[in-house]
Every structure is written in structure tokens, then in C-alpha cells.
Amino acid sequence: MGNHLPSGAAMVRFCHKLNRVKTLEDDLMETSLKRCLSTVDLTLLGVGGMVGSGLYVLTGTVAKEIAGPAVILSYLIAGFASLLAAFCYAEFGARVPKTGSAYMFTYVSVGEIWAFLIGWNVILEYMIGGAAVARAWSGYLDSMFDHKIKNYTETHIGSWNVPFLAHYPDFLAAGILLIATALISFGAKVSSWLNHIFAGISMAIILFILIFGFILAEPKNWGNEYGGFVPYGFSGVMSGTATCFYAFVGFDVIAASTEEARNPQKAVPIATAVSLGLATAIYVLVSAVLTLMVPWNSLVPDSALSDAFYRRGYSWAGFIVAAGSICAMNTVLLSNLFSLPRIAYAMAEDGLFFQFFAKVNPTTKVPIIGIVVFGILMAFLSLIFDLEALVQFLSIGTLLAYTFVAASIIVLRFQQDKTEQSHPEDQEPKPQPLDIRAAGERIVGEEMKEYESFSDKLQLVETQKKAKERRETGHLKAVFEPYLKFLSDFYPGEVVTIAVVLMMVFSICLCSILVFGTTHLHLPTWCFYLLLVIFLIGFLVSLFFIWVHEQQKKIATFEVNHNT
């Protein structure tokens, strides 16, 4: 028995380390990076991260194959859902102004093992996403020159037919990534100005698309002749929403930039809301223009916007649109290359990644090693890999990160703040220096106390009652304590953490039954409804256990929603 005790203790210590949360410094604004980004800088970074290849490729694909002109509704719903997720990022970014995005938010609230998994998930997401955008950028530019670059490469360099590899090496995509890597290395301010330039050009071209597109609009393209506004029905709108949701994933570049923001408590929430609002408006208006210019069922998915102008007889406008797509994709590339090294920097500072990624260049104040290494890796991926299959897995990683950030917000709300102080009325009064005149007045006043009204006494009793009923963060609310005494033995916030995990499990099971219960699972009717009831009850009970606990009363920074 004695031989097993040390190993058992070691296992307990190991498990404790896996679940430990990150302890933040007293001065959250202290950083080795340079705080130089304003609210406008963060807003344009967010817009640049969202309005890219999705606008020029995704819109046409969803309109033709999934939703028709109702792609407008799909973008509206997806934008609202993204806004809810973005506000969770904004609250964390304001409360924890440190770089790392979803990784950092998970670490300070849920624990180390989950932060490690989310960190690697985000790194892979950025690498694959950046390489995919580079290939889309290359393909769009090549199409402007009638695919001469592709034909030259296949003729003079060669091609191959290997699973998961591209048919030919894309030197153009790799080259643009290496150039962007070099430019990003000059510092956050240089990156921000580059983003300003490309975003400004992109916005000007989008404005041109909207004005000229509405002039060429033909309302009959939404008429019954082509199936109406919602040709695929409600299911088409919701399927389109699921696809359009990933047009907004770039907003987390704002959360990754919080450690370089001048005033993150105000700048991060404002930049998040404004950038998402602008991106949603752009997607909705461009979708309307596209489906009004030409019939939705005749769109060319890969280059719908430029092709629409070509078909209306304005080839010069189509060329301008293609140039706009190049600028928009440049902003997405900058966004990926800007965020990825900072995630690695945050993990390296915490000892969960190679330490040399935590080194900051003393001149440019950026993690230069991470920028160079990941820029080269991203260029290599774009050079030889066919990323279309891998990109499908990005949606899983994105949803996982969003889910953990939203869950972490709930957990953090019910964790006790180490700086949390007891309420002033609960503290013992400080001894006051002796004042003879005041003492005399107090003696005279004793005679008057007998005639005080009952209202003052009742007010005193009420104050004492409230003080007794007050509970610290993470404890049961006073009104539920007599009925749920068995929950009082847990650490503050522990029940909430368990309830959040169970709520996530029950919601996944509930959605799985709703989507696959009668199709892939072939459940009998009675079993289908029974499982629905069980998982719905489990979800509601988990939600109830969260609600009956006290959350933090006052938070000085931005909050998604706060019910006192």
C-alpha cells in the first residue's frame, strides 16, 4: 500500500495542474508589447478580418445553391448570432486585456488543459484559414489574367495527382504570404496602416458595387418567374445561415489585439460592435445587389460579383470588382498573420508552447520569431496542399472556440474575484478620535432616541436583514438555501462549472436528436420524443442550477448582460 501512495499523490497533483486556472497580474495593462492601437485601428482590423473572400465567393455560392435571394435573411441571422458570440469575446477582452483570444479566455476561467486544446485549435484554424485565403487570392488574380499563371506553372514546372495535394505548386500564394509576413514584422502600427490602406480601397470598391449595382437592379429577378424571394423555403434560409456564419469569424482578431490596444476596456467592445455591424450591412446590401442584377439561378459561384457586371456589359466594372476582391483578401491575410503569432506568444509566456515564441523584438515590439515561423509554415501549406477538404474542418474548430468562450464567460461570472472586498456596511467601524463636544452632544441625543419613529428602526432592521442575506459570489442565493442545502458543501462556483458542462452536453444531444433522430438514427417515434423530453429537462435543470447562484455584483468593464 505504501508504494502506491506516492504515485497516487503525484496523479492528484498532475490532475490539479491540468485544471488550474491562470492567475493574472495586478496590473493588467502592463505588457512587453506596444499599446498603440486605437478604436479605429481595432474596428478596421475587425472589418478586414470579416469582409474578405466570403463576400466575393461565399455570397454567390449560397445564393445559387442554398438560399436564393433569401441569402439576405441568412446573412442577417448569421450576423446576429455572430454578434452574440462577439460580445462574449468583447467582455473578456475588456476584463482581461491580454493577447491570446479564446486561449487566454479559457485559461483564466476553465483551466489549463482546456486552454491548451483551444490554443492549438485556434493555431491550426489560423494556419489553414490563412493558407486557404492565399490560394483563393492566387486563384482570383490568376482568373483576371485568363489562368496564364496556372498554365505556365503546369507546363514549365509540373503537376501531380496526389490525394490532399494541389494539382500544381502555387508559388503565387506562397509568395504573397511571405511578403505579408515581412510587412507584418515591422510592428503593429505598420500592420494597422497596411490594413487601413487595403480596407479603405476595399470599402471604396464595395461602395461602387452598391451604387452602380442598385442602378442596374431589376426587381423582376426576385419575382415568381425565378421562384420568388425564398425559392428554397425556410430550410434553405437556415442552411444558408449555417454557411454564412463563417463569413464573420474574423472578428476575433480584435480580441487577439487587446494587449496592443491603448484603452481596451472601451475600445474592444466598441470596435467589436461597430465592425460586426458594418460587416453585416455590407454582406446584406451586396447580396441584395447581386441577386437583383442577374437571376440568382444563373450566378457563377466562384466569381459571382465580377461575372454579374461582365454579363450586364460592363467589363471594366467587373475588373474593378476583381481588384476589390484582391484588396479584401489582403486584409484577411494580414488579419491571420497578425493574430496567429500572438496566440503562440501568449501560450509560450504561460509555458504551454516553445519558449522562443515569447521573445519580443525590442525595436518593433512584436513576437518576431512567431511571425516568421508561422508565415513560412502558412506559405508551405498554400504551396503544395489542396486545402478544400481541410477547410471543412475549420467550422468545427471555430464552433469549439466560440462555445468555450461563451461557457467561460458564465463560469467567470460566478468565480470569486481575488480583489473582491466585503461590503462597507459589513465592516467594523473604524475607531474615531475622542471629541469632547461631540460626546456631549451624544449624551443629549440619547434622550431624543426614545422618540424616533418606527420607520427608522424598521429601516435598520431591513438593512441588517439584507446584510445577512447577502452571499458571496458563487454561493447559493439566500432564498434557495433552505431547499438546496446539499449544494452548500461545494466550493464557490464549482456547481456552476459542472452545470455549464452538463448544459453543453444536453444541448448537443438535444440538437443531435432533432437533426438526426428520424433520419440517420431511425429512432421510433416514442423514443424520439422521450429523448427530446429527457435532454430538454436536463438542459433546463442545468440552467436552473446556474441561476440559483450569486454572480459578481459589479463589474467595471463591458458586460454582455447582467441580471442583478
Automatic annotation (TrEMBL):
Gene Ontology, cellular component aspect: plasma membrane
Keywords for the protein's UniProt record, in alphabetical order: Membrane, Transmembrane, Transmembrane helix, Transport
Gene3D superfamilies: Amino acid/polyamine transporter I
Transmembrane segments: 39-58, 70-90, 171-190, 197-217, 229-255, 267-294, 314-338, 366-385, 391-412, 495-516, 528-548
UniProt-annotated location(s): Membrane
UniProt cross-references to PANTHER family, sorted A to Z: CATIONIC AMINO ACID TRANSPORTER 4 (PTHR43243:SF4), INNER MEMBRANE TRANSPORTER YGJI-RELATED (PTHR43243)
Protein name (record): Cationic amino acid transporter 4
Organism: Pelobates cultripes (Western spadefoot toad)
